Automatic annotation (TrEMBL):
Residues 30-103 form the Importin N-terminal domain. This is Importin-11. The keyword Cell inner membrane does not apply. It is found in: Nucleus. It holds the Pfam family IBN_N. GO terms for molecular function: small GTPase binding. The keyword Secreted does not apply. Keywords: Nucleus, Transport. Transmembrane segments: none annotated. It comes from the Eukaryota. It comes from Monoraphidium neglectum. GO terms for biological process: protein import into nucleus.
Length: 322
């Protein structure tokens, strides 16, 4: 895809390097120049190109990822004092932003995930209907790092979409009369539910299946890992646990926000009937595997954390679907 470029990646990279200088005058001048470029066509895609350039200075790449997140937050939608990012550049970014998620550096990976989430908040599902399928496509056949980063992005996308509903609800109640608030809230919740129901329908089966698979791996590997917490069996198990915990966070939001509360519909939610008993059994299995007087280790801390997160998840699901 070709698009009009006002900014050039090399120009922006040099400004980022100057902004990292210990010379305060040079640093301030570079920061002002970067700020003046925020509303210029091509700036967002230039930052993305710098993040993608593995041969560029690492600190400059990290700063580019932070600038990218901040610029998307401020410029993605038009404001009274800015035209925002053009439709052509938005389309370009939606097409290429997922190429950036497989970052070795976790700090840059966090910024990229936040960028995807902020774009999804504005553009999913109307302008970006393929977001979920694009993410799932990277899971199948992807490296261990890529799969982990994909789930991390999913977590932040769901977190952003769920906060969108809460913010809209609060604004409706604050600005409207009682009758107007009720009508506006119903429309807002209906639109939000349709978006979240759509993403839940696409993700739930995959997330649930992978979560169950990782749980089986964790439970079967715990005895040997607890016996030798610093041995060879512990490290792979800890990596499985981190992914399992991330999937649990995703699962919680899908169940809590992806279905209308059964207190309103007076009908059972199939996902709750399927998942809640398994979550309770998982908490019991982890608790039973933990020795009562085990010495503190990363494996023991993992088990304790897992039990706590499972119980908290069950409580939140019960609040949403009593």
């Amino acid at each position: 895809m070709q698009q009009q470029q006002v900014c050039e990646p090399n120009q922006v990279l040099q400004l980022l390097l100057r902004a990292l200088s210990h010379d305060q005058a040079m640093q301030k001048q570079a920061e002002q120049a970067l700020h003046s470029l925020e509303s210029q066509p091509g700036y967002v895609s230039c930052l993305a190109a710098i993040v993608a350039n593995g041969e560029a200075n690492h600190s400059a790449r990290w700063m580019a990822s932070v600038q990218l997140k901040n610029t998307v937050s401020k410029q993605w939608r038009p404001r009274y004092d800015s035209r925002g990012v053009s439709q052509e550049e938005k389309a370009y970014m939606r097409q290429h932003i997922l190429d950036l998620i497989s970052q070795d550096d976790s700090k840059i990976a966090v910024q990229v995930a936040l960028v995807v989430a902020k774009i999804a908040r504005s553009d999913y599902p109307r302008e970006w209907p393929t977001l979920v399928s694009d993410l799932l496509g990277r899971v199948h056949g992807g490296s261990t790092l890529t799969v982990r980063r994909v789930y991390f992005v999913m977590h932040h996308v769901l977190k952003e979409l769920s906060s969108k509903r809460l913010a809209a609800d609060q604004r409706n109640f604050a600005e409207a009369s009682a009758a107007q608030a009720a009508a506006a809230l119903a429309a807002s919740c209906s639109g939000h539910r349709s978006s979240f129901a759509r993403i839940t329908a696409q993700l739930l089966d995959h997330v649930w299946g992978q979560w169950c698979s990782d749980l089986n791996t964790i439970v079967s590997g715990l005895p040997s890992a607890l016996a030798a917490p610093s041995g060879a069996a512990a490290q792979p198990l800890l990596l499985h646990f981190e992914r399992w915990l991330l999937l649990l966070k995703i699962l919680r939001r899908l169940i809590v926000f992806g279905f209308q509360s059964d207190a309103r519909t007076l009908e059972p939610v199939p996902a709750v009937s399927t998942c809640a008993p398994a979550l309770l059994q998982a908490a019991g299995a982890l608790a039973a595997a933990r020795p009562e007087r085990a010495a503190q280790s990363r494996v023991v801390a993992m088990v304790d954390r897992g039990v706590l997160k499972l119980v908290k998840t069950l409580c939140q699901i019960q609040e949403a679907h009593p």
